[in-house]
Amino acid sequence: MAANQSSPGVVFQERDLTTITTLSTANVGLIAAPFVKGPVDEIVQIASERELAEVFGKPNDSNYEYWYTAAQYLSYGGILKTVRVASSSLKNSVADITGSVDTVLIKNLDEYETTYENSGSNTFHWAARNPGTLGNSVRIFTTDAGADQIATCPAPASGGEWRFVPEQPLTAGASTGLVYKYSIVLTLENIVGTFTVGETANIDISGADKEVDVLAFDLPNKKLEIGIPSAGVDAIIAAGQTVTGVTSTATADIAAAGVERNLYISLNKGSAAFSATDNVKEGATGTGNTVVLATVSDEYSTREYLPGLKWVNVAPRPGTSRFAQNAGGSRDELHVLVIDADGKITGTTGAVLERFIGLSKASDAKTTVGETNYYPTVIKQRSEFVFWGFHETSLHDVDANNPGAWGAVASTDFDIINNAGGTKSYPTDSVTLNTTNNATAFYALTDGADYAGSGTYTVSNADFATAYELGEDPESQIIDFILTGPSGASDADAIAKVTSLVNIAEERRDCIVFVSPRRANVVGITNNTTATNNTIDFFDQLPSSSYVVFDSGYKYIYDKYNDVYRYVPCNGDVAGLCLQTTEVAEPWFSPAGFQRGILRNAIKLAYTPNRSQRDRLYAARVNPIVSFPGQGVVLYGDKTALGFASAFDRINVRRLFLTIERVISGAAKSQLFEQNDESQRSLFLNIVEPYLRDVQGRRGVTDFLVKCDSDNNPPEAVDRGEFYAEIFVKPTRTINYITLTFVATRTGVAFNEVAS
Fold first, then answer.
1. Are the C-beta atoms of residues 501 and 532 closer than 8 Å to each other?
2. How far apart are CA 494 and CA 499, in angstroms?
3. Which of 124, 430, 575, 700 could pair covalently with 94 via S-S, beta carbons 3.0-4.6 A apart?
4. Domains of the chain in sequence order
5. Given this model, what pLDDT does residue 435 score?
6. Quick one: which of 659, 638, 678 has its CA closest to 727?
7. Would you say 334 and 348 are in contact if contact means Cβ atoms under 8 Å apart?
8. Cβ distance 339 to 444 under 8 Å?
9. What's the rounded Cα separation, in Å, for the pair 91 and 636?
């Protein structure tokens, strides 16, 4: 070849002739199942039973057959591509904005990003990460800067109670700010009944009822937080007066020294703090009565998200991040807690599932190391339990001249969470509320729904087909075994389900489907003849294919998660035995028999056929699973579901061809776009023939021939850009039938005379 040089010199070139075949590892299964949690219609790779429980939840009375099919396969090693199947009844738990029952199904992260992440029309503030009722246990608490100070006010001298109105200005010398909240905390005695947050209550003052708003009620500590309505209270609240609920009919007396008037203040940006003895007006600046502040303290140190649980013990007070400060903004920081309200997720009531500290309301916010800090994005990336849906809109406006909606850029002076402790931030949720739950927004996720069905989940065949179809492309998904799990509730369901799986395998032509009988065929059937007839009748309705393997088994195992014993189908075990055979021998060895066919974790079988019944099953393409006393539970057949006599009616032959086809087709891809000539054909032969000699040496084939020359690559094929290779193999057969003949001879007879 002429070198591309314009003057004398040396150019070196390289040519790679080291292309070799790589060994195929058949260890990847696929199953679709109605799990209790996890992403829906998305393939997740699972490597162990523990990981299966962590990602998709533990088994329950409705899905244990699917769950243990997956778990039993994993017990043999390998990888399981697992899909949580969808259903029309499946819904995410949400914190709804409208207050009505919401029906939201967010299947997985892709669907969230496509449909919900940047949508301005979501009807929920937050949603459970995964569909199902488990999300109904999730509670979310968020807090931001909130009030800067709490000022204790003295009792008015006369007239009526102070009437501080939220967001009205406060001024005292150089100190300026807004009323964040004004409330009165009453210490009660002689309590009868329970006051309801959000209702009104009457206080008997000198024989006249004065109406107030119930903001929070803490029965254990005998505290009632009330707000002054817009019409005011034209009398002074004092010890000894009686408080009566309007809707709850609760009653109590105000204890001695039981009235505490608290003014919550949000300082203006850059303002000095208020101090004790400062004079402020209860109305707009320059009007209203003058109030001399008694004491002034930090508010955050008393802020709680649940009674007795303070935010200050979670993290320092959220304020302004360095990023927002540099951009000229303020109050962008936010803390988020995700809590297990009833212990159904962790087993511990009130356990903190996740905490996110110092997130930002600014859409362009970055951390000090340059990572995104915008709270919806961080929650999406890091949370295992929730998705964000919509910003909080009931906010305290820190600057009327500068809108501070969440999600704006970092230069914004962001509004803060609303001050109404009970009526807005804490909806009724069977959670005892304290009087100090200010600047905390509370969200209860509700309306999550599982798969419909009584006793077992009901999932349509269309939903199963959609889930399994995620694995139908052989180029994007490597799959060796497809696990059916339970076949179906009826013959019609089972035929439809199995047929759809067979279609996938026949289309891919690189994997095997494993099928067990319907549960009703064998479990609870005391007569073995009936069980045999049921099993044969069922499998006779299924299609013929060498890419399918039938078994006869349901095995009895211990469910450690629920402390019960259960019958589960054996198709996960049969696939596992094929996987195990690859590991301990070769993929073209049979997975059956006492050497490699012992099932794990089997206490007993629902149905163990005798010799004559095994004969009938084997003739009907069904591989018997048999319990032999003292020898274990054994796969006692290695047939595929092919309906006619062929080398491919044996599992080992089918797996031999799957293995060599995958390896050699991979080698063939390296020939694409190369020169179509005799040299390239010779190179291909030099790749394939050593591999087949290796397979022959490892007892996979008894002989082979690879033909790739000008005979099967004529000039017209070369002109069309086509390349042909024909690979002939003689597969090694397995021993299925053994005959032992014992011959007695006379003493004087030579063996060579009779042995012929």
1. no
2. 8
3. 124
4. 28-87+453-653 (3.40.50.11780), 137-144+311-444 (no CATH), 149-298 (no CATH), 678-756 (no CATH)
5. 38
6. 659
7. no
8. no
9. 44
